[in-house]
Amino acid sequence: MVPVGKDQLPHLELTRTIARRFNDRYCPAQPYFAAPDALLSEAPLLLGTDGQKMSKSRNNAIALAASEDETARLIRAARTDDQRTITYQPESRPVVSNLVQLAALCLETSPEQVAAGLGDGGAAALKRLLTEALNERLRPIRARRREVAADPGYLRQVLADGNDRACALASQTLSDVQALMHTRC
Q1: Long-range contacts of range 167-172, CB-CB < 8 Å, 24 or more positions apart?
Q2: Per-domain residue ranges of the chain
């Protein structure tokens, strides 16, 4: 199982095709590569602060490294609509519903409950609630990030250990594949 988003399914299908073809050609009795299955998350798709697909390159995302003030600034600038009443209607009000949904995820409640609680409070109330909820949710993550970033030696060691494990696994896989294909170099 490979955790992927729906937009990555074509890549996963290509991987499945390559694995099946290799197995059929070089090791039909005992397949070497497993054809990966998609593990689609129940997590909802969240839009960026501008209402478009969230992307670092579009500069419409809130980074985990962002300070609480930066987070507040980005949320204040997030798009909404001109209706005063806050409702959760993803089809007809996607940008407002996106903010409601994000607040609901942070507060561990339903989007409908968030919207009902805000009622006629308007976009400003929604953005205040979201800012508080998101900063509260990210506070321990940001603290841990600062702690880890303060120790460059630890980070270098984690990278080196990961590199060593990946190299060993890749070398073994390459050796196995060469043996199956009868192409030792």
Answers
A1: none
A2: 1-43, 68-149, 151-185
Tokens of 116: 């009902």
Compute the 3-state secondary structure of the chain and give helix, strand, coil in percent, each to the nearest 5.
60, 5, 35
The rounded Cα 156 to chain-centroid distance in angstroms is 24
Mean pLDDT of 17-35: 97
Q: Encode pLDDT of 172-185 as tens digits.
A: 999 999 999 999 76
The residue type of 7 is D
Going from the C-alpha of 120 to that of each of 87, 124, 126, the distances in angstroms are: 9, 11, 10
Calpha distance 143→44 (Å, rounded)? 26
Instruction: Give the whole-angstrom CA distance, residue 60 versus residue 52.
Output: 8
CA 83 to chain centre: 30
CATH superfamily of 68-149: Tyrosyl-Transfer RNA Synthetase (1.10.240.10)
